[in-house]
């Protein structure tokens, strides 16, 4: 495995995104260290630096005091194009290391592998730093309660449905790779996905439709459908399951902020990883 140290800086940067809004910009310091270290270790090529630079351009364009609506629209379009490329690992310059080699975590499951990504997390930094979506509810207690309720609903409905369909089986385990999976899922995977689908898509739509009676619900639904479609690689079953989970995360975001959505998402993923076939049964 390539040197792991750049990710200690990246994990620190992601954790700092949860600081109060006035202090979040300090996360750019460890993020810069992570990229410099990754460059030195050969994990990224110089061309990879073009994408953070373009994200900065997009952030400048979408400011509320931008000179025109056209400028803001161009900034959002640029961000969406970059986000798609970063999420799908289509933009060149990244050599994300494989940290969990392909293996069956349980005999009934398809092989699972995991990379540590330097591209996808950039989306979370952009959304949180450029747009400052609500991170919590009015108080921490409300955020935690919302997260727990949304997670419980997602686990019962989504994993229950997956179990009933035979997509997963009941296979409790915690492999040696579980801790790096959990850290990566908590600080990079769920944060990036919730920042994009809830902090960006749902938040932007809710603002656009705020004068409509069903605007908030429609924003949750659209973001959930897009989240489901993003899981197309797993087949129609995963599109449906992810869409249902996305609705739960959307409700968590609506009432508890981004932190509630991330916690609900992480809780479901952890339950799936630790208690059921992961990522899915080989035959269903």
From TrEMBL:
Q: Decide whether keyword Transmembrane is in the record.
A: yes
Q: Where are the transmembrane segments?
A: 39-62, 74-94, 114-132, 144-167, 179-201, 213-233, 253-278
List the EC numbers from the record: 3.4.-.-
Q: Where is the CAAX prenyl protease 2/Lysostaphin resistance protein A-like domain?
A: 178-270
Q: Enumerate the UniProt keywords alphabetically.
A: Hydrolase, Membrane, Transmembrane, Transmembrane helix
Q: Which Pfam family is one of those matched by this entry?
A: Rce1-like
Q: Which GO terms describe its molecular function?
A: hydrolase activity
Question: What is the official name of this protein in its record?
Answer: CPBP family intramembrane glutamic endopeptidase
Q: Which organism is it from?
A: Achromobacter seleniivolatilans
């Amino acid at each position: 495995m390539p040197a792991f140290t750049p990710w200690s800086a990246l994990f620190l940067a992601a954790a700092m995104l949860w600081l109060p809004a006035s202090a979040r910009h300090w996360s750019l310091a460890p993020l810069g260290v992570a990229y410099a270290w990754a460059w030195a270790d050969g994990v990224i090529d110089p061309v990879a630096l073009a994408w953070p630079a373009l994200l900065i351009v997009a952030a400048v364009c979408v400011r509320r005091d931008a000179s025109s609506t056209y400028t803001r629209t161009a900034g959002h379009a640029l961000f969406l194009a970059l986000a798609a490329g970063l999420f799908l690992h289509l933009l060149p310059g990244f050599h994300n290391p494989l940290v969990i080699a392909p293996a069956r975590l349980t005999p009934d499951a398809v092989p699972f592998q995991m990379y540590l990504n330097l591209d996808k997390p950039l989306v979370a930094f952009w959304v949180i730093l450029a747009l400052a979506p609500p991170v919590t509810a009015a108080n921490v207690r409300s955020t935690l309660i919302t997260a727990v309720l949304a997670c419980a609903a997602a686990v019962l409905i989504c994993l229950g449905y997956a179990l009933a369909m035979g997509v997963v089986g009941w296979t409790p385990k915690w492999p040696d790779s579980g801790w790096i999976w959990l850290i990566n899922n908590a600080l990079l995977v769920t944060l990036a996905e919730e920042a994009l689908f809830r902090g960006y898509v749902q938040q932007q739509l809710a603002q656009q439709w705020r004068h409509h009676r069903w605007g908030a619900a429609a924003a949750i639904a659209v973001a959930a459908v897009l989240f489901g479609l993003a899981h197309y690689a797993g087949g129609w079953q995963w599109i449906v399951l992810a869409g249902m989970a996305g609705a739960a995360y959307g409700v968590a975001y609506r009432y508890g902020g981004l932190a509630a959505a991330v916690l609900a998402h992480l809780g479901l993923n952890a339950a799936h990883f630790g208690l059921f076939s992961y990522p899915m049964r080989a035959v269903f």
